[in-house]
Design brief:
- By secondary structure, the protein is an alpha+beta fold.
- It has a domain of about 100 residues: 2-Layer Sandwich (Arylsulfatase, C-terminal domain).
- It has four helices and four strands.
- The longest helix has 21 residues.
- Belongs to the nucleosome assembly protein (NAP) family.
Length: about 180
Amino acid sequence: MVQEHDEPILKHLKDIKVKFSDAGQPMSFILEFHFELNEYFTNELLTKTYRMRSEPDDSDPFSFDGPEIMGCTGCQIDWKKGKNVTLKTIKKKQKHKGLPENGDLDDDAEAILAVDFEIGHCLRERIIPRSVLYFTGEAIEDADDDYDEEGEETDEEGEEEGDEENDPDYDPKKDQNPAECKQQ
């Protein structure tokens, strides 16, 4: 996710492109982030490659839901001295930490990867193909139509919070002002 310390860097982002693997190559896509010259790093292009599996697993072929992201690799970022926002200065000496000996990722790392994959997929499938609509504000207006003023999703059927029919404590005998029939 975008952190507050990422925002000044993203002001230098000029374009995002997606490139798909060539026919005959393993299924993958690359997100290209094009930056103008900036005070944070020397790269004008940062890339992230997502490898995908496009065939069912032999051990469980019926669970196949279509292509899925299996891994990703980011490029080397050439940070300018003192500008790497991903590093924290730690004065306390840390104990030796690393991957468990069996090489498995812990739950936190798996959750981070899952979010990373979801963001990459969203950029590839929703944002980049509709970039002109986002630029003109049309895509943002469409997204706003699905939410009410408090940011809660609205119900398509027009169900209101005070829906007496679905309230188990509602007693029609106590209702002083019954709803009027608005059909004519």
